[in-house]
Amino acid sequence: MALSAEESGRLAGLLAEHTDQVVQRWTELVAASLRGRLSQAELRRQLGELHASMITAGESGLTDLAAEAGTELRAVLAELSQGRARQGFSATETAASVFTLKDVLLELLETRQGGGALRDFVAFSSFVDQMGLFTFETYVRARESLIADQAEQLLELSTPVVKLWEGVVAVPLVGTLDSARAQVVMERLLQTLVDTGSPYAIIDITGVPAVDTQVAQHILKTVVAARLMGADCIISGIRPQIAQTIVALGIEFGDIATKASLADALRHVLRLTGLETARRQPRREL
Question: Which of 17, 6, 132 is nearest to 65 (CA)?
């Protein structure tokens, strides 16, 4: 139910006439619902901005929150919702910050006589409902965005690429390796190979609980991509159970070096780097 232009004007007039009373009472009610998790000063500032935006929108004849005249009001509501989402408040607590305005309006209108006050309250209440729903929807989108960002950060943290020494890097994998994480592993490994110029990379899967066809394909793709960058990969952490699973699935690693443990892989790389160093040293003449 949308406001009429006349009702919108009356709402703006009511809010403007009792500015201090409305903001103070509104702040008290919201503060009680948040149980002191936000300072009175900050809460009063937020609600004061929202109160001022409602007056401006009402004076411009706003009849529907989605209308062009509600642009500023929607922006203030969105800022409030996004801020509460980042601060860890719940969706209910966030929407309640708007819905409590109904109680304030009811207290103001109770002093009036006649059916006009009741009709105004019903109209004002409907508009506050629109504001509350908009706040709720904006909060949900903000939380989803935060969760997506955190998931991406966790992916990056869970796939470190460590430079062991000159020419050798390692990727210790822990947990399930799905498509999204495999892509992050590949990108981080390739970037590290470019940055360090390392010819060897150890992919350690000791912390991977199980290896199925999909996981094996992800590992093989990473090895192939590294080879295209001119680096050889050694896969370590092939435990007996994983070895049996790989054989049962018919997965072949071809000429890719595999080792039972990270220590074995390190010894293998040391031998390779030692041979290369010996080849590069000039022969001493007798």
Answer: 132
What pLDDT, in 10s, does the model give residues 233-250?
999 988 888 888 888 888
- Using DSSP bridges, classify how beta strands 162-165 and 168-174 pair: parallel, antiparallel or unpaired: antiparallel
Q: What angle do CA 14, 16, 18 make, to 5 degrees?
A: 70
Number of H helices, E strands in the chain: 11, 5
* pLDDT per position as a tens digit, 5-60: 898 998 999 999 999 999 999 999 999 888 878 888 999 999 999 999 999 999 99
Round to whole Å and give the CA distance between 137 and 141: 6
DSSP 166: T
C-alpha span between 132 and 31 (Å, rounded): 17
CB 62 within 8 Å of CB 8: yes
What gap in Å lies between CA 232 and CA 226, rounded to an integer? 7
Low-confidence ranges of the chain (pLDDT < 50): 278, 286
- What are the structure tokens assigned to 285, written together? 């003449």
Exposed e or buried b for every residue in 65-101, given b needs 16+ CB within 10 A?
A: beeebbebbbebbbebbbbbbeeebebebbbbbbbbb
